[in-house]
């Protein structure tokens, strides 16, 4: 999971269109909620989840990340639901087309995880 509250590799895509997606967080540590909004490399994060990395002001705070910055990056997580978007697409939000759990691009299949898309080297 690294320094993030959500391990994107474990998200099963339910619907996706280009650089926005929603999915189910397939992990036993899904309890809690978190969110982040980023513009360029500056993120504002909120996290109410046990075991998540500490943020500067208890459960919220600014954070600077320079790892493949997107112009805009948004993620909201509540229990096992996750909604993400990024412009342009990045490692956390790969380019995908998915309808009702059936992935059409970049890899065909049902219940495909973001980790499977990344393993195929199909990000962006």
Descriptive overview:
- The structure is a single chain.
- Helix content is 5%, strand content 46%.
- The protein has 124 residues and is mainly beta.
- It has one domain.
- It has a ten-stranded antiparallel beta sheet with strand order 5-4-3-6-7-2-1-8-9-10, with no helix packed on it.
- A hairpin with a 1-residue loop joins strand 1 and strand 2.
- It is globular and about 40 Å long.
- The two termini are 21 Å apart.
Q: Order of strands across the widest beta sheet?
A: 5-4-3-6-7-2-1-8-9-10
- The overall number of domains is 1
Structural class: mainly beta
Beta-strand percentage range: over 45%
Distance between the termini: 21 Å
Pick out the low-confidence regions: none
- Number of E-type strands: 10
Question: Short description, anyone?
Answer:
The chain contains 1 helix and 10 strands, in the order ββββββββββα.
List keywords for this structure.
124 residues, mainly beta, 10-stranded antiparallel beta sheet, 1 helix, 5% helix, globular
List the helices and strands and how they pair.
Layout: E1 11-18, E2 20-25, E3 33-39, E4 42-48, E5 60-64, E6 72-78, E7 81-87, E8 96-99, E9 102-105, E10 109-110, H1 114-119
Antiparallel strand pairs: 1-2, 1-8, 2-7, 3-4, 3-6, 4-5, 6-7, 8-9, 9-10
């Amino acid at each position: 999971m690294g320094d993030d509250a959500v391990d994107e590799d474990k998200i099963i895509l339910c619907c996706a269109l280009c650089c926005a997606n929603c999915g189910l967080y397939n992990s036993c540590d899904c309890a809690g909620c978190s969110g982040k909004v980023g513009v360029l490399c500056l993120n504002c994060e909120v996290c109410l989840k046990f075991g998540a990395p500490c943020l500067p002001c208890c459960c919220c705070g600014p954070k600077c990340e320079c790892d493949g910055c997107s112009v805009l990056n948004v993620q909201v997580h509540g229990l096992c639901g996750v909604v993400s978007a990024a412009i342009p697409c990045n490692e956390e939000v790969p380019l995908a087309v998915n309808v009702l759990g059936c992935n059409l691009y970049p890899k065909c299949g049902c219940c495909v995880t973001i980790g499977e898309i990344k393993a195929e080297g199909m990000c962006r």
